[in-house]
Specification:
273 residues, OB fold (Dihydrolipoamide Acetyltransferase, E2P), 3-stranded antiparallel sheet, 8 strands, binds zinc ion
């Protein structure tokens, strides 16, 4: 294979040996690409500075040979650095970490094109860096839309099992959406009024509707989105518990019926075992 040039979002880096760095990029045309940047830690190389998480870079990669299959990054130039504004604001940063981790997990096989996932991830990070919307909501919208792009959009307007038109109050994570009273299996989360509508508004990007949701609705919807994602990924996201879900709307004391994602996660684990 010949060297190729592509634009990618740096989703992860880790050090290799004394001077090298392995970089994982999410690209539009080649999906996930892992490659080595040689000697970037030995000198104050400009290439090293541009290959940090949250950076959008244009890279030239020589494909690897042998068992590792790791390519080598020959050139890298920064296209857009979102790291500085994100690192400066902790809620934006933690939501940004959720975006990177989710994007990496959802990208699937290395080399499989992921044009929509790339656009969604960069769009979410830009939105976080501009701080125009509450970071927790941007993360939730990204979780839902990236799952939709991967074929796992939660069903919210009808029964996911029999198709009966909703709205239905019960959400079954393992089934992937709301279920009617006749199909309702054990282990459903009962949605408070407005939660399904809030999730649908996040999916569609109707931010004016999202803004009207109560703190309790926002919180339960976050839990549902997280549980839905983690069920399909078959593992928990490390970065998710760090997101401050109360940043947008201070939660009133004594709020009940709140299902946070950790409870959801435990409920899901109980369903599996
Ligand atoms: Zn049904």
């Amino acid at each position: 294979m010949h060297p190729f040039t592509t634009t990618g979002l740096v989703v992860r880096t880790y050090d290799l040996g004394e001077a090298d760095r392995i970089v994982t990029l999410l690209t539009r045309e080649h999906g996930l690409v892992r490659a080595v940047a040689r000697a970037v830690r030995r000198t104050r190389s400009r290439m090293g500075a541009s290959l940090e998480p949250f950076a959008v870079v244009e890279v030239q990669i020589a494909p690897g040979r042998g068992r590792s299959g790791l390519g080598t990054i020959r050139q890298a130039s920064s296209r857009e650095s979102l790291a500085r504004p994100l690192v400066a604001d902790y809620p934006s940063y933690t939501s940004g970490c959720v975006v990177l981790e989710t994007a990496e997990r959802l990208a699937g096989e290395e080399g499989a094109p992921t044009p929509r996932l790339f656009v969604l991830a960069v769009g979410a990070l830009r939105s976080l860096s501009q701080q125009r919307r509450p970071p927790g909501l941007v993360a939730d919208a990204f979780l839902l839309r990236s799952m939709s792009a991967s074929g796992w959009e939660p069903v919210l307007d009808c029964c996911v099992r029999c198709g009966a038109v909703g709205p239905h109050r019960a959400f079954h994570v393992a089934s992937g959406g709301t279920v009617c009273v006749h199909c309702r299996p054990q282990g459903c989360a009962m949605l408070s009024p407005g939660v399904a509508e809030h999730l649908a508004a996040l999916l569609a990007g109707r931010w004016e509707d999202v803004a009207l949701s109560s703190p309790a609705v926002v919180r339960q919807a976050s839990g549902i989105a997280a549980a839905h994602l983690q069920w399909h990924l078959e593992r928990d996201l490390r970065s998710l518990p760090l997101v401050d879900r109360d940043g947008a709307h201070p939660a009133p004391h004594g709020t009940t019926h709140v299902t946070d994602h950790r409870e959801e996660s435990r409920a899901r684990t109980a369903q599996i075992s």
